[in-house]
Amino acid sequence: MSSVLLVGLPLLAALVTVLGRRPGGPAGLLLGVVLGQSLALLLCRRFPLTVLIVVTVLEAVLVVKDMELLVGFLAAACGLGAWAGRRQQQAGLVLTFSLIAVLGHGVQRHGDDPGYAAAGSIALTVLFGAFWGVGRLSAHQIRYSRRLEEQRARAEQRAAERERVLLARELHDILNHAVTAMVLDADATSETGDDAELREALRRLAATGRQSLAELRRLLGVLRMAPDSVLHDPLVVLPGLDDVDTLRVNNAPPVRSGRAPGGSGLGLVGMRERVALVGGTLSTASRADGSFEVIATFPMRGET
Questions:
Q1: Which terminal CB of the chain, N or C, has fewer other CB atoms within 10 Å?
Q2: Are 34 and 128 within one domain?
């Protein structure tokens, strides 16, 4: 139950009572007491037990004047269930039920019908417990909604972290392939090439660099254009592989230049994960002539 509703209910009930011209006391007293209850209920979220005590005392004033409304009292019960801590709730329940029992006993001592007094005490106890239960249910729903929001936020964070890892791996593959090819080409040309081969090697280096830059621009462009709800997944199979079941790549033996290219090894790891994502397998092996073989096998489209 919202704070506005808790505060407004007593005032609304008092206004209806005054307009109905209920006998039994001046309207000014009724409106003044109910206004005090509403002002106290404004602080119910921060001080639920204190507000319950204040509202109960003001309601006792109305009971003495035979003008009881009980709306503010029940609203405070709802606030106690919604916002009080465990110990405050226990104290509020014990205090309220004890007060109801004392009032019922007092009514009996003043000569009223014992059955009527007992029925009134039981009804008031049931009403208080019901409104307290409504507050507890409201608090449970709020906590449940917050847990769902936290779980959703954690899921979005994990998805974003996974996307960053995939993007980093994709960028690594692009740069690693390009830089490795450029380094090997430059080393080979510097060791064995003449001027004509050197010029041709420079053209190949420039072409490789331009191709890598184009791939990087394509990747970043897709990320910029994608809506927030659609994350680019670098593991999606590229178009053109629909009818391919096996890809075989053989690299020629490297030129021995005395320098071995370094690497982090994430290239093969990334390739293997991408192939596994679509149900394929990847095998790599060094051949007898010093070359390196990569074989990727994919399930055919439409197969089960």
A1: C
A2: yes
Query: Into how many domains does the chain fold?
Result: 2
Q: How far is CA 6 from CA 38, 148, 197, 210, in A?
A: 8, 26, 87, 68
Please give the distance of CA 92 from its chain centroid, rounded to a whole number.
Answer: 34
What domain range includes position 291?
235-304
Q: Which residues pair with 250 in a beta bridge?
A: 293
- The pairing of strands 246-251 and 281-286 is unpaired
What DSSP designation does 236 have? S
Which of 149, 176, 191 marks a domain boundary?
A: 149
* φ and ψ of 242, to 5 deg: -60, -35
The answer to whether 65 and 28 have CB atoms below 8 angstroms apart is: no
pTM: 0.51
Q: Quote the DSSP letter at residue 290.
A: S
- Count of alpha carbons within 13 Å of 2, Cβ hemisphere only? 3
pLDDT digits (tens, 9 = 90+) for 174-230: 777 788 888 887 777 777 767 777 788 888 888 888 887 877 777 666 555 544 444
**Helical spans, DSSP H, in the chain:** 3-19, 27-41, 48-64, 71-83, 86-109, 114-192, 195-225, 266-277
Residue at 101 is within a domain: yes
Coil vs helix vs strand at 130: helix
- Written as one letter, the residue type at 107 is V
